[in-house]
Amino acid sequence: MQWRIAARPTGRELRADDYTRDDRPLDAPLAEGELRVRVLMLSCDPAQKGWMENAGGYAAPTEIGDIMPAGGIGQVIESAAPGFAPGDLIQGSLGWAEEMIVSATGKRVVPPEPDAPRLNLGLLGSSGLTAYFGLTRIGEPRAGDTLVVNGAAGAVGSIVGQLGKIAGCRVIGIAGGETKCRWLTQELGFDHAIDYKTEKVKPRIRELAPRGIDVLWDNVGGDMLDDLMARIAHKARVVICGGIARYQQQGTPPGPGNYFNIVFKSARMEGFLLSDFTSDHDLGRERLRAWLAEGRIKQRDEVVDGLENAPETLMRLFRGDNVGKLLIKVAEPT
Asked: What is the pTM (predicted TM-score) of this model?
């Protein structure tokens, strides 16, 4: 079973008919450097919609009819690549399929351990590493800083806030709904949480951060970024990670009207890709794993069973129905 791209959802919400199901068996032979992989678990990420749209940026272009791409964990069935053997768990770019033939390039062997697929797609995967490198290398948090994170109940934002607390920051999260906000403060240790669905963000930030925002982590963009830019402190660091507000808009959204505050506050705004830090990924995993073992970071994820549920599961991500990391379980390792 496979799900293939059937349409380009540019400037609109995802729909079920953006995908077609293909139940034809996979029986092609392997070429040199390829792996036959049984897919075990797949990650749901906002970037996947951009990949479908061919929106440019860092991802390889897609075509109508391609298997829907996704980051994932698989188990090697057959190998024509040195360094990979049948039974190995591998991580990298896979797709919405029960079985795939993929290049070994860019794949890493995952150490066997309990819950290896879930752990390596969550805290030790792109979500945790994005939070770690974006905050430590670009946000440069210092003890006593005020860190504001929007999209704070998502896979990345929830880890960013916890890393901020480890660094000694005062952390304010912005999320949608009382349940998410309560989770941030009562379970993850955020100092404050703002419910953007029932509260006005700008006056609440003025109240909670009267001296301004030292580190601003932006997962949202749009009007919310503009409002928060108005409250940055002297020498603030603004980390641009995502733009969920623009993913379902037509055309190019306007830039923040308060961008000149970067000049007035002698501040810095910087975007990044996780690939900027590839050589240090193992260091990031080591530190995140240690903090998890010490109880200083909590990972929360939701695992949806069944590849047949993949389209609806990804649509849930864009509706904001998830808390933490959203994963799709395809199969168990053998």
From this structure: 0.90
How many CB atoms are located within 10 Å of the residue 21 CB? 14
Q: What is the rounded CA–CA span in Å between residue 23 and residue 214?
A: 52
- Look up residue 98 and give its two tokens: 């029960």
Q: Which of 69, 60, 55 is nearest to 246 (CA)?
A: 55
Q: How far apart are the first and last CA of the chain?
A: 19
Written as one string, the DSSP assignment of 108-158 is: EEPPP-TTHHHHHHTTTSHHHHHHHHIIIIII---TT-EEEEESTTBTTHH
**Whether 253 and 317 share a structural domain:** no
DSSP character for 245?
A: G
Q: Can you say how many angstroms the Cα of residue 82 is from the centroid of all Cα atoms in its chain?
A: 30
What range defines the domain where residue 8 resides?
2-122+300-329
- How many folded domains does the chain comprise? 2
DSSP 321: -
Q: Are 8 and 53 in contact (CB under 8 A)?
A: yes
User: Which CATH number covers residue 188?
Assistant: 3.40.50.720
Taking only the tens place, the pLDDT of each residue in 178-223 is: 999 999 999 999 999 999 999 999 999 999 999 999 999 999 988 8
CA distances from 281 to 30, 286, 287, 288 (A): 29, 9, 10, 11
**Residues 120-152: tens digit of each pLDDT:** 999 999 999 999 999 999 999 999 999 999 999
Q: Which residue has the tokens 């641009």?
A: 240
* Together in a domain, 165 and 238: yes
